[in-house]
Amino acid sequence: MTFINQLKEDLKKLARLGANISESHTCAIFLPTELLIESSSGVARGSEQSTASIELVAMHSLSTTLTRDCRLQIGSGLIGWVAQHGRPIHVAPFDLDSATLGIYTESEPIKSLVAVPITMPTEASDARKSAPPCAGVLMCDSRKAFSFTKLQIKHLEDVATQISRLLYWGLFKKQSTSVESSWESFCLKLAQLGDALGSDSVEVLRITVDTFSQVEHEHGISIAVQQSEQFVRLAQQALPPHFPLVRVPNGDILVALDNMMSSFFQHKLRTLASHLSTEAKPFAVSVLSFPARSGRGQGMDIDLILQQRPTANKTMSKTNATKMVGGGTRA
After folding, report:
1. Residue scoring higher pLDDT (316 or 331)
2. Whether the model pTM is above 0.70
3. How do the domains of the chain map onto residue ranges?
4. Helices 150-179/3-22 angle, 10° precision
5. What is the rounded distance in angstroms from the CA atom of residue 156 to the CA atom of residue 113?
6. CA-to-CA distance for 17 and 23, rounded, in angstroms?
7. H-helix segments, the chain
8. Quick one: CA torsion of 141, 143, 146, 147, rounded to 10 degrees?
9. Residue 132: is the preceding peptide bond cis (ω within 30°)?
10. pLDDT attached to residue 306
11. Cα 100 to Cα 72, 77, 96, 103, distances in angstroms
C-alpha cells in the first residue's frame, strides 16, 4: 500500500472517531492539494509555490449525497475560510443552504456546523512567513440545531491535533527515507567515488547544526527537526547526485565530494543555512573538511578519515547566527 493510501485509511478512522465524539451527521477531513501531490510523488515543494485548494480525503457520514471527489478553493465558503485563516468556526443555527458548503450533491437539512483547522507540517520559506500556511480542516455538521457542545468542540480540536501529528510523523519518516542513505550505501558510494577520482581527490565534509539545541529550547524539538530536515533536503538538491550524503546518529551530516569542489560547496552549504535563519529561529552550521586518504594504507576507510585533523574549520558562530535574518549576515 502506498504512503498516501495508508494515510487515507488512517484518516478514515479518525473521521469516524470525530463523528462519534460529536454525534454529527457528517465528519469530513480536508487536506491541502499540494500536500497530497507532494506525498504521492515524493517531489519536494518549491518555496514559492502556493496552495490553491483543499481536498476531501476522509469522511464518515450518514448522508448518501456527499461529493466523494470534493475539492474546495482556499478562502471560498466556510470550510475554505478556515483553511485560509487557520481559525475554527462554530455556526449555530446554520441557516444557509447546505449547497454553500460545496460538499453535498443535494440539499441537506443542516442546522449546525463546526470546523477546526489542522496544522500542516509545512516548512515555508522566509518569503512566505508574512502569511500563515494553509491549514487542513476537520468539519462536522448536524441536522440538529445547537448540536455541538464546548466539550465536543474541544474533543474535535484534539482529533485535529492527532491528525496533524499523524501527518508530521508520516511525512517526516517518508522524507527522511528519501534523503538519507544507509551507512552501507554511503560507504559504498564513497569507495566508488575514490575509485573514480582517486582517494587523494576526495574529501569528506562533516556538517554540524550548531543552533539545534537553541531552537529546541526556545521553540520545541519539532521546529528544530523541521529546520534540520529542510536543510538536508536543500543540501541534497545542491549537491551533484554522485556525491553521497548520510546522517549519523548524533545528527551530523557527512558528504563525500571532489576536493577540487570542496570550497565551493562549503560556501554553498553555509549560504543555504543562512537562508533558513531568522532572528526568531536562528540556523547555523559548522563545516569540517577531512581528506579522504587516511595516510595509513587504508585508502577510503571512513573511520580513519574522520580521526584525522580536519583540513579546514569553517564555523559560523551562534552569536553571528542570532543576528541573521533571512539571507542577511552570512559567514
Report:
1. 316
2. no
3. 3-175, 181-321
4. 170
5. 12
6. 10
7. 3-22, 33-41, 77-85, 150-179, 183-197, 212-219, 221-238, 262-276, 302-306, 318-321
8. -70
9. no
10. 82
11. 11, 7, 7, 8
Q: How confident is the model at residue 324 (pLDDT cuts 50, 70, 90)?
A: very low
* 308's grid cell: 584525522
Given CATH 3.30.70.270, say whether it is the number of domain 181-321: yes
pLDDT at 219: 87
**End-to-end C-alpha distance for the chain, whole angstroms:** 45
Q: Which residue has the cell 587516511?
A: 294
**Angle made by CA atoms 128, 130, 132, in degrees to the nearest 5:** 75
Q: Are strands 253-258 and 202-209 parallel, antiparallel or unpaired?
A: antiparallel
The CATH number that domain 3-175 falls under is: 3.30.450.40
User: Per-residue DSSP letters for 45-105?
Assistant: PPTT----EEEEEEEEES-S-B-SS-EEETTSHHHHHHHHH---EEESS--S-GGGGS-BS
* pLDDT, tens digit (0-9, with 9 covering 90-100), for 204-241: 999 999 999 898 889 888 888 888 888 988 888 888 77
**Cell numbers standing for residue 203:** 574529501
Report which of residues 44 and 185 the model is more confident about: 185
What residues pair up with 58 in beta bridges, in sequence order? 29
For residue 167, with 0-12 CB atoms within 10 Å meaning exposed, 13-18 middle and 19 or more buried, which class applies? buried
**Residue that is written with C-alpha cell 531568522 in the block:** 278
Position 6, amino acid:
Q
What's at 176, amino acid-wise?
A: S
Q: Which of 50-54, 155-159, 220-224 has the highest mean pLDDT?
A: 155-159
